[in-house]
Structures are given as C-alpha cells and as structure tokens.
Sequence to fold (227 residues):
Amino acid sequence: MIQFLLSQSVAASWQRRVYYTDLQCKGNFQWGEQVFIPSAACQASSTDYGAICEIKSTDSLVQSSEGTSCETGQQTDAVFMTNPIPGSNYLVLNSYLGTDCSAQNSKQITQRTYAADGKCHVFEPGAFFKASCTADSGTITFCTDSACQNCQDNATTSAICGQGLQIDSLPTKMICATPESFNKPTTTSQAPLAATQGPAQTTQATKNNARIPVPEIAGLVAGALLL
Fold:
C-alpha cells in the first residue's frame, strides 16, 4: 500500500501555460493557466516556463507569446507566479474538481491568473482583457480591441468559495495577489518530485479543462468563464 501511494504522488504534474508581454516568452506574466493533474506524469519535468514558446499577438500596442511546460510536483493552491509585472496585482481564480474549495485528496485544481493593473492585455488577436481586484472581490472585462475600448463582458469574482464567477460550474474562489505576496516558482512548486518516464496519462478532466482555446472567449456569458 505504501509503495502504491508513493507511485501515485510521483505521477502528479502541473500542466502550465503562461502568456508573456513580449514575443520571446521572456517578458512579464500577463495571463496564465496552471492545471494540477493528480494522475498524469510529465514525460520530462521542466521549470523553464518559456522553453516551448509560441507567438500569439504581434499587435504594436500589446504583444503576447505563450510558454508551455509540464512540471512534476505536489498539489497546492498557492499562487504560481514567474516574472510579474512590477507593481501589479494579479487576480487569481482557483477552481476545484470536487464539492468545495479545499486542496485535499489530490483533487484536480485549475488556476487562472490575470494581470490586475487595470491595463489592457492580450491573449491572441481579437481577444483582450483588463482586470482589477481587492482582497474581497475583483472584475475581469473582456474586449475585442487592443485599447480595451470595445468591451462587452464583465465577470465579477469573489474571495468566498461559491460566490461570484464559477469556472466550468466548479467551486471557485478568487485570490487578489499583491506584489508582496507572490511565491517564487521554486517555492510554489513545492519541492518538485522526480520526473517519470514514458508517455503521460490523460484523464477526461484534463481534456475538458487543461487547454481551453483562447478564441472561445468571445462566447463568455454571465456566470461562465471560458478562460
């Protein structure tokens, strides 16, 4: 039984993607999605979050590139952050595959993080956002232009589990992370475990939650978030 439990913990991984403010995945963090998968291992664990880089937006006002990685590690719902925008808050939404907002029993956790400096940020061409937050609540506004003037959808978030925006109808709570509160990646990762070999397993929950296409943001409706 002990050996079985150890093998289960080693298999856990974080599927990470970070949208940077430049075209080389070396700029500041403007949006990110981190998915903890308790039953899927990394083929090769990495903490180089920009090693696999794809250009997303070459707009002269707001650029973006997407860095992706898989990191073997333990479950946590602490805020993940790498290279934050100086002085910016970040609106963090944690959603839990379960009945409450507790990081227990190795449940899947999805964390989506938005730069909350009130400025316009970009996912991909035609998909922009601006966000702000306080300790109790926050707002994300989705727009279609690089000046964030043509905006249609507002999402209100809450630090109380089950109130405000609920991602994928799962229990969700907000954290307004201040510059003083960020954990460094080496701390957030909670002492990474050894990477396992062989093909990664993919659960149905991973298929549903880990990689939601950014252009679907145009379909945002009140009470449901696609990013």
User: Anything to note?
Assistant: Confidence is low (pLDDT under 50) at residues 1-9, 184-226. Helices lie at 2-11, 185-188, 204-209. The chain is about 10% helix and 35% strand.
